[in-house]
Amino acid sequence: MAVFRSGLLVLTTPLTSLAPRLAPILSSAARLVNHTLYVHLQPGMSLGGPAQPQSSPVQATFEVLDFITHLYAGADVHRHLDVRILLTNIRTKSCLPPLPTSVQNLAHPPEVVLTDFQTLDGSQYNPAKQQLERYATSCYSCCPQLSSVLLYPDYGPAVSPAGSLGVHLPSTIRPTSPVARSAKQPVRGHQRGAVGGTFDRLHNAHKVLLSVACILAQEQLVVGVADKDLLKSKLLPELLQPYTERVEHLSEFLVDIKPSLTFDIIPLLDPYGPAGSDPSLEFLVVSEETYRGGMAVNRFRLENDLEELTLYQIQLLKDLNHKENEEDKVSSSSFRQQMLGNLLRPPYKRPELPPGFYVIGLTGISGSGKSSVAQRLKGLGAYIIDSDHLGHRAYAPGGPAYQPVVEAFGTDILHKDGIINRKVLGSRVFGNKKQLKILTDIMWPVIAKLAREEMDQAVAEGKRVCVIDAAMLLEAGWQNMVHEVWTVVIPETEAIRRIMERDGLSEAAAQSRLQSQMSGQQLVDQSHVVLSTMWEPHVTQRQVEKAWALLQKRISEAPSGP
């Protein structure tokens, strides 16, 4: 059967009966659609009669919210799919006017429409398919050559397995009072509200948060997107998507799911954001983790003579497949951890290098653990070129850089035995850009020449992978000698602690050393692979082994010859 890039799944089964069948329905849909899957809820609709079915409002109850959460949680096992539950026909009690008669445009017009609707014979050659196609095109902009598929009986009989989720779905919104509420209880609507977050690599837990906010809001939703200082405490901030990219994905998702709302997407630069100061806002959607922040916002509003916001606390989505050191919830932090060791951009082509010889440039800020990663790669079979050792050779009496350095900086940088005192030289150049440039203009070309000689030696020894370990790899322009740049990252606070411990420097001196280098973010922006040594050694080893295995696969699949 053909596979489509985008699809529309029309769910017609009543929600209580649909919940236990949802996993196989999503699996069936995931076999047919490989990029964007829109979901339209129309419980109780029949495709079997002679009359053309019409879209009708679905009242927003707590059961509907819980089902939306259940669907996004179930979709998390199909992470190649960008699932979007469309909310145009889902209305709160305070807002049930007729549905719009115009066709809603979608960012990715569906190429196929799918449904869980059950025909008597289970046949694909059925008038129900024509009804389905007409219904889909009356509601949404679809591709001209729209295909249709009846998923039943592919997803199996409507038998609820013992202990299934069909009895009681977990509550999406944590109750503010211990009084039990009915699943059929309508959700109250508001005119304007807010929601905030980092929204990095928009995932299904974000989509639950945003969907609830969109259902509650009738006119306007203010969306705060964390930026600048609020990102500093994030795990692996170097791998965060840029603000503009996060906003672009967020905006497309929101306009797709509820185009009738006005969205005001703004940078969130402090913990309160517009929720702390906008008098027109009525509610704030928070997660279990950010509920205390929501309470702080309300205290701040009261201090400034503003009414409190109604807080809606959304339960976190559990990540049942999380690994060691990853959070047990669906989170962007875990997604960034999973990127470690992966290829982030295509390798450089280096036809001037011998065929079958592959060069990695390994870099990282001072204290990042770069040299320990180099040793792990050596253990896996890589030939290591240590630029520090090459620098020692170049500085040594009779070395290619010795005389030029002494002439540039004077004989007072020498020990009594004539050897260059690197500590004295370092104190001259660190924090002095002019002096540092004089030194690097001498040293970098010399070290590059020595590195090329070492590469020739690696080729002679039959090595397939060579790693140039160099803190200043990118500053020196040595990326033109390698196929890939690998960067080791670490939080700056941890780097400073390590430098102080390793080199006996003061905190100010350690900070000065880091300021003389490119930042971790600048390095990552030019890197092909990112690793981190911020966890236990065995976690680092596992990262390096993953990166090495993927590298071997790339090398084996690369075309031979220049």
UniProtKB/TrEMBL annotation:
Gene3D superfamilies membership: HUPs (3.40.50.620), P-loop containing nucleotide triphosphate hydrolases (3.40.50.300)
CDD domains (UniProt xref): DPCK (cd02022), PPAT_CoAS (cd02164)
Recorded superkingdom: Eukaryota
UniProt signal peptide: 1-18
Keyword Transport: no
Keyword Signal: yes
Stated family: In the central section; belongs to the eukaryotic CoaD family.
Protein name: Bifunctional coenzyme A synthase
Organism of origin: Bos mutus grunniens (Wild yak)
Lineage of origin: Eukaryota, Metazoa, Chordata, Craniata, Vertebrata
